[in-house]
Amino acid sequence: MRGLLRIAFRNLFEHRAKSIIIGILLSLGVVILVLGSAVHNGMANGIERSFTKNYTADIIITGIAEGPVSLFGVASAGGLAKTPTLPEYEKILTYASSMKHVAAVTGMASTFGIAQKEEQTANAENQEQTDDTMEGNPFQIFYLFGVDTLQYRNVFPDFSLREGNFFEPGMRGIILNAKQKEGLEKYLKKSLAIGNELVIQGASSGGVKIVRIPIIGIYEIKAEGYTPDQLAYCDIDTVRILDNMTIGANIEVQLSSEQKAIFETTNYDDLFSDSNTFITTNSNTGSVDYENILGDTSLREELNKVDTGAWHFILIRTDKPDVAPAVIKELNTFFKDNNIAAQAGDWKAAAGEFAQSVDIFGTVLFVGIIILAFVVVVIIMNTLVVSVIERTTEIGTIRALGASRSFVRRLFFTETLLLSLIFGSIGIVLSYIVNTIIRSLNIKAGNRILELLFGGPVLSPIITGGTVATALIIIVLVGIVAHFYPVSVALRIEPIRAIQTD
Amino acid sequence: MKRVLLVFILSVSVISLLSAQDFTKILKELDNLNNFEKSDFTAVYTIITQKPGEKDSVLQARVFRRDREDLFLILILQPEANKGQGYLKDKDNVWFYDPSSRQFTFSSLKENISNSEAKNSDLTRATYSDSYTIEKTEEGVLGKIPVWIISLKAKTTDAVYDRLKIYVRKDRTMLLKEEAYSVSGRLMRTTLIPKYVELNGKLLPSQIIIVDELNPGEKSQITLTEQSVSPIPDSVFKKDFLERVNK
User: Fold this and answer.
1) Which residues pair with B134 in a beta bridge?
2) Is the ipTM of this complex over 0.90?
3) Considering only CB atoms, which chain A residues are within 8 Å of B235?
């Protein structure tokens, strides 16, 4: 073995020009593989950090729905379905709070809302406008997060306000971001300040509701590009009103036997079995009691009272992010054992479609790196193949001097392995150096697409042990595969003919 | 012999032409059933919806219409929690009133929808005679009732459904069933109208059943009661009517 190593080293030295060229290519391949993976790692890490620190926490607990439940609603085949109210909220909250590694918990609910123009503003605008067009405004729509005023900032300590104050217990209001405020000002055609009221309309399965709430603060956007600019924070009762989380929401509709029968019908043509029965004559003279058309409305007030125990989610901050999977597992076991229709998921479950979109972006980046790596690998293989073919004469001479086929194979294998390991290691060292330089340069994203690519406002690639090991294994495998075929071809040629090969 | 053949061909052509005109007339008559240009109209609509995995929902509303002045008012009666909510449409202006917050919201039908080229007015239901052409007609029986089965094809891509198959009672122009198909020919929705009411000689649907063919189990039944074509006081089509009835 030692003899083989000595001959391999000597051969590499003999062909030093060739060895250096192949080595440079191998090192470059490792640098590309390691840095590409590092950028991808940085992106994934940055996205997770941004989401968990600012919006999703580490774990989300939701009720069960047909589609996946996220902070932004329930995705279903027919669009967004109603977010289920979390059953046995207090029991789950108490259990979650007592769990090991759980640092903070908070309840939350979310819904959509649409900012409405005051009638005077709208009418004035109509008079001003002579044509039919009016620019649409995305800031008219809100994703409203209804928060637990006491607990929310324990889970999200980085939440900060540029202006105004956070909710006091029992306070009604909305906290916007500066972009949203600016967009709304354009839409409403008036300037907005802390204390001004917004009219917001919500539409849920319980019907349309309108609320008028004051702006109490302007929050800082922490993870631009990941979550919608339309995200606003509300007191929990406002969200409960808009999303029909009221006393009346739990009342079941009682159908008459005829109504039930129609729904149970399978052959609708049977409804037309008698031509005489389905036309009736109406002799109504129109005696409508217009002033008392609604009758007693006292029950309405009762039914519209908010259900103060209704929440959509519980968000959990763990003391270490890597313990989240274990805590999720334990929570799901608790729900199963106690027959609670709830589920625990990670930050990606909480972020819903927003995590999916960044996942897609990550996949695109990953595919890009793979394509680049593939090109580099093909170049390296090609160079290795050529270099071995050039040594056909040498192989014939060694064989003519009595060396066995297996010896020649082992010799070339050792040479390639040495080359791959030495220059692969150099590539790793170079990768760390380049990575350190990139991080120290503090390269700023400048735009949203690059921010997504960088995983934050600054490019922060992360090299992990796994990345290094994978790159090294790939390069060694490339070397072995690349030399195997030409050596086999050379060995098939008679030594005397191989010697004659020019 | 030639003369007999010519007479036969001419007769067939004339009959075909008359038949085609008849079906166009049927479409116009169907469109006219929903036309209240000459009188006011009011009725209580009850819509019950069933969706798999969800609670049944009921929406009951009284509708007031004065088509000749483009006035329309909907007053919600059920669910109890939404009682008193109302929509008032006065030409291009629409107000929504929520009695819980005592707040009106306003929108204009002139506004574009979500920054698209579409306008609210584009969403109004297309009429059979204006939006569709007759592709095929055949005779059939629905239950025990002889019907014309008329296949329609949308004239433009603006129509909600590309193809419709409507089942119209033969002895009196009444739409009994409508099947709506997509461009690929997939059945999307079936609408059945098993009950009608006759009001001052005009036929109005009093029960409509809608079956969502894409989402099995999703069905709605709409019942119309207390229909009337008597004059409605002008004060009903005012914003303060919505506030007043809620006091």
Assistant:
1) B152
2) no
3) 290
